[in-house]
Amino acid sequence: MPKLSRRLFVLSAPVFLAGCMSSRTHTASVRPAPRVVPAYYQEMYAAKLDEAYPVAAADLTKVEPEFYRQEVDYPTYEPAGTIVVDTQARHLYLVGTNGRALRYGIGVGKAGLAFEGTARIQYKREWPRWTPTQDMMTRDPERYGHLADGMEPGPTNPLGPRALYLFKDGVDTLFRIHGTTEDWSIGRAVSSGCIRLLNADIIDLYSRVPSGTRVVVLQGDSDPVV
């Protein structure tokens, strides 16, 4: 088996989170047929009413099927239980055994793209509070200034129902893996934020990984597999 090739180095602190034309004659536009989502995935991403706050069903018509949660081949030297975040491919892998992994679709932002290397999940939170960074409050005080003491958990909280907090050598990286209600952002690089998963996916991932879990974040031309 060839040696694993990737760049893993100490992270630097994240820098922060048509014209119209008329005509007398025209051809009706052809709309693509709506995507048919298999019942298996509809059930996987159904609404969750047994949470502290209701979690709405994901709108999977806004998410490409490759970003639905699924088990895939993933040969790697990383031990089982490791989380590998491939920001370029927009995938998060929970490494399993026998060359397999559970793959989740992710959305990334400037905060997520500012981190590369290894870290540990220092702690986990269900329905966490969210506090904007000092940079965000300075840049846009009207929008964020009143949130200096944090935002209460709930359906509108940007962190969603779960969050994983990453530290390196005991220092908070300000890097989070969390949920989102913006289903359309999965598979994309959005304007701000860390690593976001569909709410059903972060609930699932949260249940599978303990505090102390090793997390490897790959950027650019990093290669996560052997």
TrEMBL record:
<keyword id="KW-0133">Cell shape</keyword>
<dbReference type="GO" id="GO:0005576">
    <property type="term" value="C:extracellular region"/>
</dbReference>
<dbReference type="GO" id="GO:0016757">
    <property type="term" value="F:glycosyltransferase activity"/>
</dbReference>
<feature type="active site" description="Nucleophile">
    <location>
        <position position="194"/>
    </location>
</feature>
<dbReference type="GO" id="GO:0008360">
    <property type="term" value="P:regulation of cell shape"/>
</dbReference>
<dbReference type="GO" id="GO:0071972">
    <property type="term" value="F:peptidoglycan L,D-transpeptidase activity"/>
</dbReference>
<keyword id="KW-0808">Transferase</keyword>
<dbReference type="InterPro" id="IPR050979">
    <property type="entry name" value="LD-transpeptidase"/>
</dbReference>
<keyword id="KW-0328">Glycosyltransferase</keyword>
<dbReference type="GO" id="GO:0018104">
    <property type="term" value="P:peptidoglycan-protein cross-linking"/>
</dbReference>
<feature type="domain" description="L,D-TPase catalytic">
    <location>
        <begin position="81"/>
        <end position="218"/>
    </location>
</feature>
<dbReference type="InterPro" id="IPR005490">
    <property type="entry name" value="LD_TPept_cat_dom"/>
</dbReference>
<protein>
    <recommendedName>
        <fullName>L,D-TPase catalytic domain-containing protein</fullName>
    </recommendedName>
</protein>
<feature type="active site" description="Proton donor/acceptor">
    <location>
        <position position="178"/>
    </location>
</feature>
<keyword id="KW-0573">Peptidoglycan synthesis</keyword>
<dbReference type="Pfam" id="PF03734">
    <property type="entry name" value="YkuD"/>
</dbReference>
<comment type="similarity">
    <text>Belongs to the YkuD family.</text>
</comment>
<dbReference type="GO" id="GO:0071555">
    <property type="term" value="P:cell wall organization"/>
</dbReference>
<keyword id="KW-0378">Hydrolase</keyword>
<dbReference type="InterPro" id="IPR038063">
    <property type="entry name" value="Transpep_catalytic_dom"/>
</dbReference>
<comment type="pathway">
    <text>Cell wall biogenesis; peptidoglycan biosynthesis.</text>
</comment>
<keyword id="KW-0961">Cell wall biogenesis/degradation</keyword>
